[in-house]
Amino acid sequence: MRMYDIIVKKRNGGELTKEEIQFFVNGYTGGRIPDYQAAALLMAIYFRGMSKKETADLTMAMVNSGETVDLSAIEGVKVDKHSTGGVGDKISLIVIPLVASLGIPVAKMSGRGLGHTGGTIDKLESIPGFRTELTGEEFIYNVNKYKMAISGQSGNLVPADKKLYALRDVTATVDSIPLIASSIMSKKIASGADCIVLDVKAGSGAFMKSVEEACELAGTMVEIGKSLKRKIVAVVTDMSQPLGHEVGNSNEVIEAIDVLKGKGPRDETEVALTIASHMAVLGGAYEDFEKAQVELKEVIRTGKAIDKLKLLIQIQGGDPDVVDNIEKLPKAKYHVEVRAVEEGYVTSIDAECIGVSAMLLGAGRKTKEDKIDYSAGISMKKKVGDKTQPGDILCVLHTNLQDTGEAEQIALKAYSIGNKQKIIEKYIYDVIG
Ligand code: URA
User: Fold this and answer.
1) What pLDDT digit, counting tens, does each position of 234-259 carry?
2) Is residue 169 flagged as an active site residue?
3) 278 catalytic, yes or no?
4) Domain boundary among 307, 323, 339
5) Is the same domain home to 136 and 254?
6) Residue from 78, 81, 82, 310 carrying the catalytic annotation
């Protein structure tokens, strides 16, 4: 078999066989196929797409490129969730303690941010002492004893995705439905959970810019999960503007604490409760979505959920006192206000621009090697539907960098101001599965 022939076949719109896909994945992971040929195939897939069978074969070839996690030592049905990535998306920080408060084992494998999107592992590492690399034994022990654990992906879990994702990130081939679906589902299958809830983001801050594309991605992932006997639900949620008011690492932790204390923003709270309710139903604790939602609101009201977050921080080596003393979290030196120049209403906010601006302030990585500044980020003072006057603060940039010129320009450009008020009423577009 030759890589050249596989590229030609896909470039001409052909359907790749399981063997051809395995040849590519194994050869690329093993270093026998060079980046330039892999990049050519990725671009051909980007334009020609993949059939359901090809996408499923690609997913399994990626799962088999490394180790898989065996969670059978954990009692009960294990639930995981995954987001396709967004800006200000701190849902995992909220739902892990929330769902665990109901006694459902949450075994969460998470990743780091790249480009304009944030990652849960980076957010948690802004908590002094928090350990995100657990051994397999620690992970299983914590889920059994405390009903929750979160860990970064261990070294040899889906190595094909690590290499392919890094290549896609620099070859403009991230936003392809079969490539995203196989990337996410290979990690979820390899990390061993019985039930998976996917938060598929739609809008300017997501890889899928339209709700239609997001629903197609959701359907593709649900089919892959079902064919591999996983219980799976995909919730398509709004990412047309940053979620909540905070973007960055330590300030997203603060906002997650607010949600768990019952005083978080409406959009963030609604999305978190929806994802958590699906996790509770899939995990078998409740038959009924509404009943699960009532119980989840109750664990927030009674303080059980916030206590569970404190426990999560403590058992993973962090300082649980940050929950009541947020000044213990990293804080930036400079706070730069971005002000409106026109009168009107905020009609849209380009969430990807806000993500890029936050990255330039130090909250994200331009390359995989970059170090993160956990205190850097953006507080969104105005969101879609809000009225503005010239001079009003639209958002505040937090950073330790002295030169914020480019980040300021991008943040200002993210805001569109018009005469007609637009209200975003819907945060949940669809539920598939
Ligand atoms: N998240 C992933 O893990 N993979 C993708 O391809 C996109 C988002």
Assistant:
1) 999 999 999 999 999 999 999 999 99
2) no
3) no
4) 323
5) yes
6) 82
